[in-house]
Amino acid sequence: MLSRHASRLLAWLLPLLALAAAHADTRQDAASSEPERLVYFGIRPLAGIRPEEVEGLDRLAESEIEARSHYAVVGPRDIETLLSLEAQRQLMGCNADSSCLAEIGGALGASRIVFGDLTRYGPKVLLNLVLLDVESARALARLSRTVDAPDSLAPLLDVLGGAIGELLAGETGETQPTGATTGAGAPPLASAAPPPPAA
Fold first, then answer.
1. Which residue, 108, 117, 87, 85, is CA-closest to 20?
2. How many whole angstroms separate alpha carbon 138 and alpha carbon 153?
3. Distance between CA 116 and CA 192 in Å, rounded?
4. How many CB atoms lie within 10 A of CB 109?
5. CATH class held by domain 4-25+35-182
6. How far apart are CA 142 and CA 149, in angstroms?
7. Which of 42, 44, 46, 146 has its CA at a distance of 20 to 30 angstroms from the CA of residue 93?
8. Close Cβ partners of 45 (under 8 Å, ≥ 6 residues apart)
């Protein structure tokens, strides 16, 4: 049963599903056979982070997901291209709701979703990433990284690729590193962001 919010968004999405499928197919290697689809919803800027600061990180994260997985990736820029402004507003309301994101991912023909958020705590930034199974709306893996970044987010560029690799390790048959939490025992997520650290 679709939530009311997801149902409204799907009304905007359904006419565009064929376009989304065609667009994702152009990313497939000609020699590969129909890879599964993954929707990357991007990194949400939270406290202390401006939206424009995460644009470069989003592009890098999308490239790393494509390079480190077997999925055909539909990224934030693809979604912006395909969706109307109103549908994008509806989608923004889904960002903290894993079941809503899973419904949208399913409508786009995806089996996996990756999303995350970024929060500043003084000179440090906290990056959270989540790999979500669309069918069950449960987290398959989640990962957090704290990085010293007092002046800019540039230090994140050095750790983002490794973080994506760890997040997707279970999807590629590699041994899961200790930095990521995985498994069916992980509870459904309401948000990627943990509570602020104790003072």
1. 108
2. 29
3. 6
4. 16
5. alpha beta
6. 22
7. 146
8. 51, 53, 54, 117, 118
Grouping H, G, I as helix, E, B as strand and the rest as coil, residue 111 is strand
pLDDT per position as a tens digit, 83-132? 665 566 666 666 556 777 787 777 778 889 999 999 999 999 999 999 99
User: What pTM value is reported for the model?
Assistant: 0.68
Q: What Å distances lie between residue 34 and 28, 31, 47, 70, 109, CA to CA?
A: 8, 10, 39, 10, 12
In the block, tokens 């006419």 appear at: 15
CA 187 – CA 165 distance, rounded (Å): 22
Q: What are phi and psi of 189, to 5 degrees?
A: -100, 140
Find all residues with CB under 8 Å of 63, minimum gap 6, and list them: none
Contacts of 107 (CB under 8 A, 6+ apart): 10, 13, 14, 17
User: What residues are paired with 197 via a beta bridge?
Assistant: none
Distance between CA atoms of residues 66 and 45, nearest Å = 22
Provide the 10 A C-beta neighbour count for residue 96: 17
- Per domain, the residue ranges of the chain are 4-25+35-182
CB 40 within 8 A of CB 105: no
- Judge contact between 172 and 68, C-beta under 8 A: yes
